[in-house]
Write a structure and sequence with these properties.
The chain is of the alpha/beta class and 511 residues long. The chain has 19 helices and twelve strands. Helix 16 links the parallel strand 11 and strand 12. The protein starts with 7 loop residues before the first helix and ends in a 10-residue tail after the last helix.
């Protein structure tokens, strides 16, 4: 799940999948009169460029926008959702493909088209990449350029947190008015509707069963499918899981602090790290306090700037340092290994480590904010306590004032969608074989939440990967091989030697 400036899946997933394309322009859903034409799948040109030589089948799934409408949405507006089917390397692929979609909520899943090299499951079966309703290449796309512009402008103008959040809420209100004015039913874009879309796609493509693979928010979405449409599911892979019973905004600051503590403790227990970076915890929170009083200044390139263009000087406060550190931990691998050294670099006044983070605050990234707001304001915020959300940072020394998704409570007040059914805040119980992967250093969806999901998944296998971050399958070959082994035989735990031999992080020592 993403917070504040939303880099865990934007910068993590999006940067690991190499191509980036501008989001499609928002367009209203198409009015349909004939009740018999949806749901259906129509072959069509791919919605995004496909790597040369890739064997694919592309098209659009047409489904009713409003699934609460009498008659199952028939006769109302119809939306179109892009689909890309990657053909297996096998001349005789298994009959049950893998359905993949990304998280956010609000991320475009079609970026997964660049992931063949990191998809060993393609050796045996096709992979279906599905663009969720409301995301960048869906029709309509619930993008909010107003929000992107407000966030970027606040960063450029060095506005304080209060002013920045106020501008973001105002921009979200303007986006809502525009989308609603186009006839889009914002309450129709949630996990229950997306789960129904997935089931319609399975039926339209003619599969008896398939396998589901979700990461971050899409792990939550796959839990919805398991609950509502279990008959079509052979097995499930959940990665970086946010189960529906967890109230994310009430717990996110605590998760960040606990993940920092893992790093501080492991560095202290490693003689070389402890000698090179003593009192790491105290040093980090001192940096946060200093930066809130006197921000770091970092000059970065403007997005799409011409060679020789003047850079932009950004001011990064202590809360930015916290977000940056969370993102580094969530990224896993070398980002974690070098973090103690980078913290000491900041302590010396060298803010170079923050440059990439600062640049990301100026780049919108094609994120569908409207889709995110509709999901979050229907099925997360109504079940949370505003008092508990506000109280988090006061429990943690050094994090006073830090907020997870600071603008969202007020945005949800302005977004005005009705709350989802209470079942969207309750555990999912299932006996479908499920592989659950979590990263030790996931600062957004910690292993504890994956274990919580596993309690009610009767045939689940849970693995916590040492040194792993958010979305461990993107960065770990071992995790990907475990997924491939599980898909080949979901009746038992994956037999992959590397899972048992993984060791804790070895921090990099820099002079």
């Amino acid at each position: 799940m993403n917070h504040h400036h939303d880099t865990p899946l934007l910068r993590l997933c999006f940067s690991l999948i190499l191509f980036c394309s501008a989001a499609t322009a928002t367009s209203p859903p198409v009015p349909i009169v004939d009740e018999n034409i949806v749901p259906r799948f129509d072959a069509a040109a791919c919605a995004v460029p496909v790597p040369e030589g890739e064997r694919v089948r592309c098209g659009y799934l047409s489904v009713p926008e409003d699934r609460a409408r009498k008659g199952g949405g028939k006769g109302g507006a119809v939306i179109k959702l892009p689909v890309i089917i990657l053909k297996s390397d096998s001349p005789q692929p298994a009959p049950d493909p893998v359905l993949r979609t990304l998280g956010g909520p609000g991320a475009s899943s079609l970026r997964l088209i660049r992931g063949r090299r990191a998809s060993p499951w393609l050796r045996e079966r096709d992979v279906i990449i599905f663009e969720q309703r409301g995301t960048a290449y869906a029709q309509p796309a619930l993008t909010c350029p107003e929000v992107d512009a407000a966030r970027s402008d606040s960063a450029r103008r060095h506005l304080d947190e209060r002013a920045s959040l106020a501008r973001e809420v105002s921009a979200a209100s303007a986006c809502r008015a525009r989308l609603a004015g186009q006839g889009i039913n914002l309450a129709a874009y949630d996990s229950a509707a997306s789960a129904a879309d997935i089931e319609d796609l399975r039926r339209a493509l003619g599969y008896r069963q398939w396998n589901l693979y979700g990461v971050s928010y899409s792990a939550r979405l796959m839990l919805n499918v398991m609950r509502d449409y279990p008959q079509g599911v052979r097995s499930v892979v959940l990665e970086s899981t946010l189960p529906p019973q967890v109230n994310y905004d009430e717990a996110g600051v605590d998760v960040a602090a606990a993940t920092f503590d893992i790093m501080f403790q492991q560095c202290a227990e490693e003689p070389e790290c402890a000698a090179a970076y003593p009192n790491l915890k105290e040093r980090f929170y001192e940096i946060v306090r200093r930066a809130n009083a006197r921000p770091f200044e970092v000059t970065v390139k403007q997005p799409n700037a011409q060679p020789g263009a003047v850079g932009v000087t950004m001011q990064l406060r202590g809360n930015d340092v916290i977000e940056w550190a969370m993102d580094e931990l969530a990224s896993g691998g070398e980002s974690i290994q070098k973090l103690p050294a980078e913290i000491f670099r900041l302590a010396r006044g060298d803010a170079g480590a923050l440059a990439a983070y600062a640049e990301s605050k100026l780049s919108p990234g094609g994120y569908a904010w409207g889709m995110r707001y509709s999901v979050w304001c229907r099925e997360e915020m109504p079940f949370q306590s505003r008092q508990k959300i506000k109280a988090q940072s006061r429990r943690r020394d050094g994090l006073n004032g830090f907020k997870i998704q600071g603008a969202l409570p007020s945005i949800c007040d302005a977004w005005r969608v009705p709350p989802a059914a209470r079942v969207e805040n309750e555990p999912v119980t299932s006996d479908i074989p499920t592989l659950i992967l979590a990263g030790e250093y996931d600062s957004y969806t910690p292993p504890a939440w994956a274990r919580l999901a596993a309690r009610t998944l009767k045939r689940s296998y849970f693995y916590e990967l040492p040194g792993g971050g958010h979305g461990v399958g993107f960065g770990s070959r071992c995790a990907r091989e475990a997924v491939a082994a599980f898909l080949n035989d979901p009746t038992r735990a994956p037999q992959v030697d590397c899972l048992a031999s993984m060791t804790r992080v070895k921090f990099l020592i820099k002079n």
